[in-house]
Amino acid sequence: MRSLLWIGVLVVCFVSGGATCARHEAPMPFPPPPSVLTDAPSIAELSAVVNRTGSVQQLSTNTATVEVLTMPSVPRLSATVNLQRERRFRMRASLPIMLGAGMDMGSNDEVFWFEVPEGMSKVLYYADHDQYKQQLNRAVLPVDPTWIMDALGLVQLDPATVVAGPVLRDDGKLEVRSIMQMPDGIYQKVCFFEKSAGYVTDQFLYAPDNRLIAKSSATNHRYYDEQQCALPHRVEISLTPAVGPPLAMKIDIGSYTVNQLLTDDPTLFVMPQTASQAVDLTTLSANVAPPVGAYTAENSIATPLRGTMR
Description:
Elements: H1 2-16, H2 43-50, E1 58-68, E2 77-84, E3 88-93, E4 103-107, E5 111-118, E6 121-128, H3 129-133, H4 148-154, E7 162-168, E8 174-182, E9 185-193, E10 200-206, E11 212-224, E12 229-239, E13 247-253, E14 257-258, E15 277-280
Parallel strand pairs: 6-15
Antiparallel strand pairs: 1-2, 1-13, 1-14, 2-3, 3-4, 4-5, 5-6, 7-8, 8-9, 9-10, 10-11, 11-12, 12-13
């Protein structure tokens, strides 16, 4: 459970980093993106608009803040992050004294890692991406952390994986359901899109046993004219591990640098080797999984696909 607590904190920092207790005003809304979709777009038309985010190969920010919604005693954190498709990520951060100090986390094409303080030394938690995917049904995190990059607005929509949609929901959004074949079974992904501009607003990931294991909600989108796509500047993310409490966070991003990293460090995506102890996350698999049906979707949340779309 001590490891799970650290991982819970790290998942929050993995997407946003953080180190101060500063408070920030609510962000001002950006002008709405242009309308580019018809009233009833086909999946090909929708995917063509959504996949414009493929032109965003790098994102950097040092003006983000994060609130840990499932840890209300933790103050709002300032945040920095650098990422590069498909799996490259690096964040170095210090945390408030209540949580310790000095963390290093990141990902490259082969592995992802979290380096955290342990007394006067450091512990490195790491895992090979492919090996971790082999045991998602019993892992201490329900998804590979790189899934969160989609929540930050970089989702891609493959029409070949779509099993239903797009259909217009009662709330005015478009809904699409896709399937993903993983080593432990078929996962379902449900996405909601803004009906005229075509950006993703909500994502839901279901395990093969129909448990909702990850969801995100994105708002305050800003349109980037050069890339012809909109990126969210507020994201709420919730993960439901097989054991331990859910993990939920809210991230506000002041500004992005698009297709440029705010550092020229040649070791940016290299896993550090200075920790006194290294722990393979694949050895921290959960032994007890929650019963099937333990989670029920709220009225505003998509439910698992059971044959047809409602």
